[in-house]
Structure formats: C-alpha cells, structure tokens
Amino acid sequence: xxxxxxxxxxxxxxxxxxxxxxxxxxxxxxxxxxxxxxxxxxxxxxxxxxxxxxxxxxxxxxxxxxxxxxxxxxxxxxxxxxxxxxxxxxxxxxxxxxxxxxxxxxxxxxxxxxxxxxxxxxxxxxxxxxxxxxxxxxxxxxxxxxxxxxxxxxxxxxxxxxxxxxxxxxxxx
Amino acid sequence: xxxxxxxxxxxxxxxxxxxxxxxxxxxxxxxxxxxxxxxxxxxxxxxxxxxxxxxxxxxxxxxxxxxxxxxxxxxxxxxxxxxxxxxxxxxxxxxxxxxxxxxxxxxxxxxxxxxxxxxxxxxxxxxxxxxxxxxxxxxxxxxxxxxxxxxxxxxxxxxxxxxxxxxxxxxxxxxxxxxxxxxxxxxxxxxxxxxxxxxxxxxxxxxxxxxxxxxxxxxxxxxxxxxxxxxxxxxxxxxxxxxxxxxxxxxxxxxxxxxxxxxxxxxxxxxxxxxxxxxxxxxxxxxxxxxxxxxxxxxxxxxxxxxxxxxxxxxxxxxxxxxxxxxxxxxxxxxxxxxxxxxxxxxxxxxxxxxxxxxxxxxxxxxxxxxxxxxxxxxxxxxxxxxxxxxxxxxxxxxxxxxxxxxxxxxxxxxxxxxxxxxxxxxxxxxxxxxxxxxxxxxxxxxxxxxxxxxxxxxxxxxxxxxxxxxxxxxxxxxxxxxxxxxxxxxxxxxxxxxxxxxxxxxxxxxxxxxxxxxxxxxxxxxxxxxxxxxxxxxxxxxxxxxxxxxxxxxxxxxxxxxxxxxxxxxxxxxxxxxxxxxxxxxxxxxxxxxxxxxxxxxxxxxxxxxxxxxxxxxxxxxxxxxxxxxxxxxxxxxxxxxxxxxxxxxxxxxxxxxxxxxxxxxxxxxxxxxxxxxxxxxxxxxxxxxxxxxxxxxxxxxxxxxxxxx
Lengths: 173, 711
Fold this sequence. Notes:
Number of strands of chain B: 22
Largest sheet of chain B: 6 strands, mixed
Number of domains of chain A: 1
Number of domains of chain B: 5
Radius of gyration of chain B: 34 Å
CATH architecture of chain A: Beta Barrel
CATH superfamily of chain A: CheA-289, Domain 4
Number of helices of chain B: 22
Oligomer: heterodimer
Structural class of chain A: alpha+beta
Strand order of the largest sheet of chain B: 14-18-19-17-16-15
Distance between the termini of chain B: 72 Å
Helix content of chain A: 10-25%
Largest sheet of chain A: 5 strands, mixed
CATH class of the largest domain in chain B: Alpha Beta
CATH topology of the largest domain in chain B: Heat Shock Protein 90
Helix content of chain B: 40-55%
Shape of chain B: globular
CATH architecture of the largest domain in chain B: 2-Layer Sandwich
Number of helices of chain A: 3
Radius of gyration of chain A: 17 Å
CATH class of chain A: Mainly Beta
C-alpha cells in the first residue's frame, strides 16, 4: 500500500517527460513561476533582522530552525512599487545552486503564492529582449496558462548572479 | 576485503607513531632510557606491520631496517650515540615523507630513501654510516657513491608456483613489487601451461615467471620476498654475471606477454610501477578530517543525553497533568524547565569538549625544531615546555601551529645569542626558551619567552620612523615601541637570514592570530630577554558577547574587545568642525562611532547624552561605539553568514537570541575600518591635530598608525 502511494507521488512529481512543475506566485499583479524542485518551503511573513550596508532589496536575515537565511524583497529587486505586508504575504524559501554546486538557502518575499502548474518545456517561450540583457531580471521564459501569462524565473540566476552579484558590485565600488 | 576505508586510520596511526618516534629519539639524546627505546621500537614495529598489511612494501621494508637497528639498541648490543640518533631522525623524516606520499600520491625522494636505507644497513653491519644526515645537503650527490659501494649483481629468478597460489591468498604481484624495490626488475610471464579458455579455472595458477633482478641485492633479500610461497613452489635463484646476461638479452626468449592473460596477474612492467601510488587515494588534507575522542568524554555525553531524556519525560508528564487539570503542576513544570536548562548547558559544554585537544599537538614539534636550528646556528638552547595538556579547540590548534613556529624561530634567531656573547654578558652559555600554555578566564594564553638579548628599541624606533610608521615627534611608550614589530614590512635583522628577517612574518603572525579572534603582544627587557604573549579564545564556535540595543535591534559586541562602557558626560565631548565627534577618555581623544548611522539603522537615539558609549579596542586603537543601551552578557553560538549569504564588513557572524530572532555579531576591527572609510580620514586627522595643538600635554599614543602615517 505504502509503496504504491509513494510510487504514485513519484510519478506525479516527475510527471511526463519534458513537463516540469512550477510554483506560481503574485507580485504587483503579475504572476511569476519558479521550478518547484527549487522550493524548500513556504513560510508566513515574520520580522527580519536588517543587515548593514546591503542593497535595499535585501531585507535582512531570519532564523530558519537555527540557520541564518537572508531574505530578498522581490518587489524591490524588480523595481516594483512597495506594498504593505498583507495576510497573504509569504516568504518562499528556495535552494539556489552556484556553478560549483554549492547550495545556498535564501528566502524571497512575495505578495501571495497561487498554485502549482504543470508546464511543458515546449510551452515556455523565450522572453522578448527589452533593453540591456544585464538588466533582465533572470527571466527563463514566458508561459501561458488559462489565458494569462506566467513569467518563469531562473532561481539560480536570480539569487546567485543578480541578488548576491549586486552585493559584489556594491563592495567593489 | 576492501582496505581503503581503513587507510585513513592507518595514516593517522602512522603519523602518531612517527611523532612518538621523533620525540623518543630526541629524549635519547639526554641518555639512554630503555623504556624510551621500547616506545620507539613499538612505534616502528606498528608502522611496519600496518604498511605491510596495506601492501606499502617500500615503507615496511624501510621500517624493517630501522626496526632491526632499534632492536640492537634495545637489547643492548649497541650503544646509543649521536650519530645513530641523527641517522634515525633523518629516517623518521623520510618515512614521514613516504607516508605523506601515500596521501598525496607524491612519490618520495627515492634517492634519499635508498641512501638512508643503505646508511642504516651500513650502521647495522657496524661500519660508519655513509650518509650525511644534514637535511639540506643534496641527497642525489651522495647516492651514486652509495650505490657503487655495494656489490652490483644480477639475479636470475625462476618462479613456478603451485596451482593453489591464489587460493592460498598469495598475490604474485606483491612479490614482484617487493623485488622491484630491491633493484632493476624485469619480469616475463610464461603462459605456455595455460589451458584453453573453456577449461580455464580462474582461481588456479597456470603461470610461471622468469625474472631478472639487477642491483646490490643479497640472495637472502630475494628469498625474503618469496617467504610466503617458498614452501610450495619451485624457486630457482641464481647469480649470473653481467656480460653473460647481456648476451642472453640479445636473444629474447619466446614468451608471451601477460597482457594476453585473462586472469588478474601482474602486468609485465611491475618494475616501473610505483606501488605507493596505487591504493592511496588522497582523501583529506591534513586539516579537518577526523578527530580522536577519549571514550570517557563520549560516555559523559551519553549520560547527559540520558538525563535529557528523563527531563523530557518529566516535562511531558507535567504538561499532561496540566492539560488534565490535575494536581499542583506549575511547580513541577518550573522544576523540569530548570533541570532542562542545566542539562542543556552541561551538554553544550561537553560537546565543545569533544573538539578540544591538548596543545601538546602543536608543541610537540618544537623540541626537534629547536634542536635542528641550534645545531645550524651554533647556539645552545634549553627548551622548556609547560602546560602541554592545556586543551584548546581543534580549529584553533591547527591554525596556531605556523605562527608559533615563526615566533620560536624568531626567538632563536634574533633573541638568543651565541654562547660566546652570552658568556661575555655574564649569562649562562645555554640559553633558555620557554613555551607555556594555560587557561586564563576563558582564554588560552601561550607564552614564548627567552632570556636572550631582548628587543633593540632604538633600532625599532629608527626603522619605524624611516618607514613612516610613526612620527618622529611622537612620544611612544616602551610597550608601544616593542609592539611596532607586528606592523607590516618590519624587520630589524641587519641581514636577511634563511630563518627570518625578510620583513614578512610578524605582521602575518599577528594577522593569523587576529583572525582567530586572539591578540598578541610582546614584552621585552633589553639584555634580559623578551616574552611574546598570545591570547586566544578556547573555541571559535562560541563567543562571550555583550548585547547592545539600537532602536528595535539587538547587536552582539565581543566582550573581549570591550574596554569600558560609560555614560557620556557633556564636558568630555568635543566636536571638531561640526563633523568629527571625539570623546576624552582617560586623557585620550577617541573617535565616537555612531553605530546607528554606521549600520544604517533608522531607529536609535541621536542625542549623545541619552545613550551609552562602549569603549572598544581593536588593533591597538580605541574607539567609542555609541549605542542606545546595553542589555546583558551572554554566551552566543556563532552562525556564519557566509553559508547562505556572504561576509559583510563590520559583521563577523550572526547568532540566534532566546526569542528566536537573529542578532548580528559585530566585528570591531571591521567596524573601525568601515568607519574610517565612511568618514574621510582627512577630516578626522585634521580634527585630531587640532585637538593636539589645543591641548598639548595630551598624548595621542593610541591613535591609529595609518592616520599618523598619513601626515
């Protein structure tokens, strides 16, 4: 019985070939998606400890069961207007992987999580180039689901190159 | 059986054994003690046994010769003299290289190995060891001599094993590897007896070998290689003369090469294979890795965890009672919580104990180092170690080794004089170098003191002025002058020796120690010697912190850097040009660092008189940190920010407070740097200069060197 159930979940997770599951969330009315395998957990909003001399988009750190985890304000990072924290505001804790395989646990603040979609790789189209490539906020592509657009983000690129990269520029300056 | 998982243990044991041998040999200098020789012998014996079991024949062979020599010392048929001790010490060195070679897959200096082995054998036969035990002499030059001295011979070996060779657990590869150790080996495999593949039993040996061995080899040694199989095989060993052999070589025997053999038999090129490189998979470097813990410490932990379980069930019971509304439970609950608190604290302390090792691990290399250096420099030094059993965190221990070596070398090179000079100064010819360790209020304090010449303050001051480290008008205390030697680019040695004096070193020593959260200082009396004092935290995992609040946030200041906390008195405040704020603290002007603006904290008190000033010291500078209020002192567990984020200037890490919130641990030297960076150095300097003119008698001795140098 048990093993059957486990198998079923396994099949569900892997789904068909070429189809990945994406967790979608809202940010200033836009819907974003990240690969669900990158998500460690979703937490309710809690106060963070601010850190000195970091970009505004880095809110600070929280205590995640004994681990110190940095929290990124995604609205700020994407230059979206600030919004008050609401009852649906959550922190999505993700595991971002560096090129050398080193994993970092980081959190990002989003307005609300919405759902999990199965999206085939073939249904994801590249994002149109707008402006300088370096300014593109780690968009892996665009997908359409039920008549609306989901912006698929590359978590590794976003967290490692864009968020932490920002810090390097800062300290270099 | 796969031995590779035991390899690490074996290597560790080897290093331990080598250390035991070394320290034993050093004691032999002082007189023959049978117990000491026994210890050395046992260590050599277990290295030999272990390496043989792993198939590191080159090591076991080498150790075997050493062991034989030691055995003669042990049974009294040979007297201990300096020459033998030197030879054995050199052998320990090369043996250590060989063992390290297993780890790093480097091949040791074979010429040196052969040379030492020959020397050991020569010593065994009673002749003078024909080896130069000075390490820096090029080994290669001596080798050909050693080689030609022994008789060069060529051996023809025919080896027909019994068919059960493999079943008896023997591996011909081992034998040939052992032979290859002795000299130039060429092996040819005779596969003429091999049945067709369909009838082949892979566990039966159908092969025969013919080998030629060239080198200074005794027949006995060859027999020894075959000792495991000699009883049930046909073995012919004969010596051929070289000319005859050459003729033979021209007409090669019609034999098939082993490559066609389906069985796991040795490839024909055994002679070239380096047996050491084969099984040794370099897994860990010398740092980190494993740790040896005494069984008592583990038992204690198990007891504590047992108590924790009992406390947990007690609390459980109290909680259930409460839920059912029965009995006087609040008291039971509080009792349980108190017990839990006590248990946790004990558990934490004992866990930390697991990482603690005696400082002896770092000290043990010094007797040898001092002995070697003294020999080189013609000095006589008596090394006294004390407090070797003082325990310190493993990480600290690993990182303190190099700075200690540097300091000891410095003392030997610069501090202690040669016997003639000492005699002329009315001191005993033999100098004294003392290394001690002890616990002092949660820190470990290491002292390195010598009774040498002490520091030459005039020379230091002159050099410092030359380098622009200090202003020649400045009045410096003696202590401050002495400690100038820890500044970068400083060396008072008249000539650069190979030991020290290149001007790199003391500043690196200081930096390494600072990185460990420790401090270093030197106290010197001219003509009487100097003492270096190193103060280190016992562990890097826990810190004694002072909690300070700014606005809504709590920060941790390392207690070790706090000099004093005080309420700001208006009359001691000065502000220069409306920008730099200075506070007069014990006749000195120190800059006030407003932590809220430096850390970008929006909250916090702005009016200086309403808050507190925490006077801190880092790298010899004083500064006042302005905070809202202090909360209390507490031991905090350091969590790295780098794991998930990255290092920030002014922050050394984070910790989790009792309420579950994260608090940042401030890094005082980093904060001061940050402050200087934010606050233009010029402005500050100008204001200090102004203060000095206004208030001439006040010394500014604690002003940062960088600032004074900027003038």
